[in-house]
Design brief:
Number of domains: 4
CATH superfamily of the largest domain: P-loop containing nucleotide triphosphate hydrolases
Shape: rod-shaped
Strand content: 15-25%
Structural class: alpha+beta
CATH class of the largest domain: Alpha Beta
Number of strands: 18
Strand order of the largest sheet: 8-7-6-11-10-9
Distance between the termini: 143 Å
Amino acid sequence: MKARRLPSGTDSLTAGSAAFEQVFDEARSGLAILDRDLRFLRVNQRMALLDGMPAAEHIGRTVRELDPQIASAVEPLLQRTLLEDCCFEDREVEVDKPLPDHSSPRRFWLVCCHPLREGDGTVSGCGLSVQDVTAQKLKEEAQTERLRVESLLSDLSTDFIKVTVSEVDRKIEQGLQKVVEFLGVDRSSIWHVSPDKEQLLLTHSFALPGIKQPPAVIVDLIPVWNSTLRKGEIFSIADIDEMPDSYWREKEYCREQGGIRSILFIPASVGGTVVGTITFVSHQARREWPDELIQRLRLLWEIFANALERKRADQKIQDALAEIKRLKDRLEAENVYLRDQINIEYKHEEIIGRSEVIKKVLQQVGQVAGTDATVLILGETGTGKELIARAIHNMSGRKSRAMIKVNCAALPAALIEAELFGHEKGAYTGAQSSQIGRFEAANGSTIFLDEIGELPLELQSKLLRVLQEGQFERLGSPKPVAVDVRVIAATNRSLAQAVREGRFREDLYYRLNVFPVSLPPLRERREDIPLLVWAMVEEFGKVFGKNIERIPRKNMEAMERYLWPGNIRELRNLVERAMILSNGATLVVDVPEGAAATAAPPMTIAGMERLHITSVLEKTGWRIRGKNGAAEILGLKPTTLNSRMKKLGIKRRGAPAEGMQAD
């Protein structure tokens, strides 16, 4: 294009000396002279470098013809200069066009515009001066951004200094929202690495409206991210499409998550082990992750991670305190139960006896002790059922903890449920605090349920559930409590008969009757009586400070002939009384008169039953009903006992009428 002739005003301005030409061309700013149509009349080399176009190609072309993007930045200012006939000094404009060798996608120019006049004062063009201040501008922006980030970090750090543990989660959610809005990203999430290092578990996340939340669990860690996380390294990518094809799983994940474009992972370590990571994602916009920003985001992540670690530490403390309280409550409960059992009936470490029947019992004890099977001990009152239960427990793997004893017949029906299973505060009138039950106290040990036949029918279903599922609920609480308890039950009654009469659940009976052990009455192990007597004499001799050297043979034979309706308990009571009354080295046990049985040939079952019932009746003074009456001792209903007496022909000597047997 042919260059236009300069206006006369311009001639006078440019037609000077070579010095002017030198100053114009060597100026450090970009200089240009334009006519009223904004066509370039002259440019220096610096201007050509700024807009990336050779100087010769400027002449005669308008700013817009030369470059529309540059025109958009400087044209408005040039037009105002011509229109208003005034100068504009140091106006900053942004040119949205990077040079090929420029690292920044934007450029910033400091522009000055001056009107050029003819001799008559008419504005004929304008002069343009341009300085590239991109580096300074970016430095200022970086400094401003740094101050903003540091201000954000300072605010968040202040928020977390005094935050309570209960507020940590809420504060972190708020912090993530601030960071997302500050950075201009779409989502930020915090993940916890599972103990097996194979899963990422989402703990906190904030996403802008319309942005898909991440999955709660990432089961199979994506290979590259897995590798970087395990090493504790940072992973960042400005554009997912720029990743090589080998990252196809990473790309697939980003597509599934609503089209993630840019992503940043920053892991956190505790004691050299990676425990979690924080992620930042951008969906639509490409996002650069400069090192300086990443370092500050690491500081932010440390604030969050420290708060979470403090919360986890506090939770561990709370769990530990709860466990201590649970163990303390259980220990206190055990102490209560142990105090109740200090005065046990037998203080011998071993079961005494050499009869075949007791040897058979001990053989059964040895067979079942090492298992966790439920045991049902059957036997008359006073035969030593609790002693057998203790032997089973002491030979088991649970012997390190105390066996808990419950006498189902001794507890009031209204309180037995709370005693067995515990209660919560306010569960019933008088329940001033929570209390664990005996099953909970026996967790990991053995519970001995004596007189199981006396357990109320409505509680038998709860006991059945403990046996089947190992669970129960405290009174006043719907929350199930799991326990590992071995059950040993005992009864002096026929549970099978109670099942037939509807007083005992059949399913519970079968659950209890896994391994029955029948204890023989003392009358069936007469050869053990001398051993038992001398063991008791030795025990009471230490208590009373007495030394017994002999027991008359006739007295011992009388004890061997006696039927012992009260079994070992009755024998123990008589020996203890004899020891109290004894003043010498010879002990005489007062065996009840008229109750001794002479040696005789074997009886029929009916004869044995007749003798046993008669012995009990004589002991109670022929009183059948009431507490400690014959019916209670024999475990029969009074009407049933009367029927048995009629059937066996049992009558009180000298009784004028049959009705006298009733009281």
